[in-house]
Amino acid sequence: MSKVLFLSVPSHGHVNPTIGLVSELVKNGDEVIYFATGTFREKIEATGALYKQYLVDLDLFRPEKEGEEDPMCTMMREATNIIEDIFSQTKGIQFDYIIHSTPFPFTEVFKQVLKIPTISSLGIFLGINNFLESADMFPTPPEYALMREAIKAKYNVILPDKFVATMINLGGLNLVYSSRYFVPEDQLSDNTYRFVGPPVFDRKEKSDFPFKLLKDRKVIYISLGTVFSNFKPALYQVFFDAFAGKDVTVVMAAYNVDLSHFKIPDNFIVRHYIPQLAILQHTDVAITHAGMNSISDLLYNDVPFVAIPLGADQPDLAERTAALGATISLDHETLTPAILQDAVEKVLRDPSYTANMKKISDSFRAAGGYPRAVAYIKEFIN
Predict the structure, then answer these.
(1) For residues 380 and 80, what is the distance between their CA atoms, to the nearest angstrom?
(2) Per residue in 318-343, pLDDT tens?
(3) What predicted TM-score, i.e. pTM, was given to this entire model?
(4) How far are the Cα atoms of 67, 148, 229 from residue 109, in angstroms, in the given order?
(5) Which long-range contacts (CB under 8 A, 24 or more apart) does 327-331 make?
(6) Which of 19, 24, 26 is nearest to 40 (CA)?
């Protein structure tokens, strides 16, 4: 039995892919101590892992709220306190290896101090090559120099000159939640990357969603995710205008979005949170921001969809899926209700989209899932 230190970036895009992995590790006898924030406590504890809470919220990608310090600045200012708190909460435990979110900023500290193998969980994978090559273009905030000096003085660990380099931490083993078929051949090509298929796992999410309202109805599911839900509120009006009064039921997630100034059509069911895997069992077609978790769920479950990428790795994911003939990717800057309607009808009616989705879905299943990921981990640490 191995003892595992799991250092996450506690955002949905980085935690959700790991829940099934941790469950599989625990099932195989490993003891996992998982650091995150309270939002994910219930999910983590349901896997059998031991939940631990960071000193501060390390969701570095959450939208900055008015009057609140930028999460990156908080992390840099509190760096040594955060690191010391993790060491304090795990004092006396002899870990065998570390699994970490790729952008966990203190990976190098724990790697060098504990002197144990590290495994990177790639919540984002497309575009990493380009990101690393263009690192010099990203500014390094002045707070980073202070953090870097403090860490060097306390732990004798020298972090990279550029702050952005601390956001891409690859391990001796790198788990990619996709398939070799889906990822372009010129990306993630060395043998440290292992493709294990998408993060599809029964998350046992509790929900009071009125599924009975979907019986015998054509269902359109719309979600712009959690991080980008407020990226462009005008998109919600496009959705309303496109499908209001149509003979469909539209289920729409609007995470932390204030829709009070919109008139929501009668055929829309809008919720702050939607149990995505459950709703896909009732969905005829979807509209997505093309985040990794969402696009993987849709492809794995063979649900036709239209992509409206908004940022981060979404343009890359949408472009790749479209290149494989499995979706239509639309530009949010020029999107109109008519354009959206046409795209939805096309992916529904043209059988080539379904056929090409199945090729990707088959490659996902062949990748082996979480049992294969655990096998790769055991092979690596042994």
Answers:
(1) 30
(2) 999 999 999 999 999 999 999 999 99
(3) 0.88
(4) 31, 11, 34
(5) 327/353, 327/357, 328/353, 329/290, 330/306
(6) 19
Euclidean distance between CA atoms 6 and 19, whole angstroms? 11
| Cα radius of gyration rounded to whole Å, the chain | 21
In the chain, how many H helices and how many E strands?
14, 13
Residues in the chain: 382
Q: Return all residues near 345 (Cβ < 8 A) that are at least 6 apart.
A: none
3-197+367-381, what's its fold?
Rossmann fold (3.40.50)
- pLDDT value of position 138: 72
Region 211-365: CATH code:
3.40.50.2000
| Token pair 């005008």 in the structure block, residue | 234
Same-fold call for 3-197+367-381 versus 211-365: yes
Contact residues for 79 (Cβ-Cβ < 8 A; gap 6+): 105, 106, 147, 150, 151
